[in-house]
Amino acid sequence: MSVEKPKIVFVLGGPGAGKGTQCSRIVDRFQFTHLSAGDLLREERSREGSEFGNLIEDYIRNGKIVPVEVTCSLLENAMKASGKSRFLIDGFPRNQDNLDGWNRQMSEKVDFQFVFFFDCGEDVCVKRCLGRGQSGSGRTDDNLDSLKKRISTYNNDSLPIIKFFEGAGQVKRIDASPDAEEVFGEVEKIFVASGF
Ligand code: UP5
Ligand code: MG
Predict the structure, then answer these.
(1) Which ligand is nearest to the CA of 72?
(2) Is there a domain that residue 162 lies in?
(3) Any binding-site annotation on 86?
(4) 71-81 burial, b if ≥16 CB within 10 A, otherwise e?
(5) Does a structural domain hold residue 2?
(6) How confident is the model at residue 70 (pLDDT cuts 50, 70, 90)?
(7) How far, in Å, from the CA of 152 to the mean position of ligand 1?
(8) pLDDT tops 70 at residue 1
(9) CA–CA gap between residue 159 and residue 155 (Å, rounded)
(10) Pocket around ligand 1 at a 6 A CB cut-off
(11) Could you list the residue range(s) of the whole structural domain that residue 137 is in?
């Protein structure tokens, strides 16, 4: 008897594009489990006894991308622990190392659907993250210094990955600059059209 592989949607876009916000809404409306790679890394950073705590903090504060062995294992463990079969993977893969590591460790084990790309201008992204920082997000990277680095990593390392998926016809792009309600209207259409 063949066991069905879990369905995976990658959710990508710049810092503050609204990935987390839209994923919560998708979870409320469709049968998906949301796994944010950034949230999993922040959890691992604070876990007592974690050997990666300091490394993760240094990478996050400097907007650098944590080595894939760490992130991919956190994702795989979270998938297994959930016992669920449809996942939104938010904020991953964000560079070639991430993509290669995922392909080595996970691609055979999952049923990849598509990439959701939340496309949003840099100024809007920065404004949203700074706003979140001011309202007490507690994130150590919601400051101008870290944001400049996050944006530059996104442009240099993450956009080429989105372009790669685009070339393979696997990207669904959404304009993420309107308000969250309006963006979700578009998101919903895509999920319904994809049979979810
Ligand atoms: N907001 C959201 N949507 C809005 C809208 N349409 N209109 C107006 N406001 C809107 O939203 C950000 C803020 O904007 C919130 O205040 C929200 O209310 C408002 P959010 O939904 O949180 O946006 P999101 O795209 O999730 O932004 P986030 O900051 O989480 O994106 P990043 O990609 O920068 O952060 P992430 O947590 O994914 O990664 C952080 C760091 O972890 C990375 O820089 C990296 O160092 C590390 N990392 C890795 O190394 N590897 C990984 O695989 C993942 C992360
Ligand atoms: Mg997020």
Answers:
(1) 1
(2) yes
(3) no
(4) bbebbbebbee
(5) no
(6) very high
(7) 15
(8) no
(9) 5
(10) 13, 15-21, 36-38, 41, 59-60, 63-66, 71, 91-92, 94, 98, 128-129, 131-132, 141, 150, 179-180, 183
(11) 7-193
Among all ligands shown, which has an atom nearest to the Cα of 125?
1
Residue 1 lies in a domain: no
Reply yes or no on whether the pLDDT at 177 is more than 70.
Answer: yes
CB atoms within 10 A of CB 111: 11
Domains contained in the chain, number:
1
Position 111 in a domain: yes
| Cα–Cα distance, 144 to 3 (Å, whole number) | 47
Average pLDDT taken over every residue of the chain = 97
pLDDT of 195 > 60? The answer is yes
- CATH code at position 91: 3.40.50.300
Q: Where are the alpha helices (DSSP H) in the chain?
A: 19-29, 37-46, 53-61, 68-82, 96-105, 122-134, 144-153, 159-167, 180-193
Segment 124-143 shows an average pLDDT of 96
pLDDT digits (tens, 9 = 90+) for 20-33: 999 999 999 999 99
pLDDT tens digits, 95-127 = 999 999 999 999 999 999 999 999 999 999 999
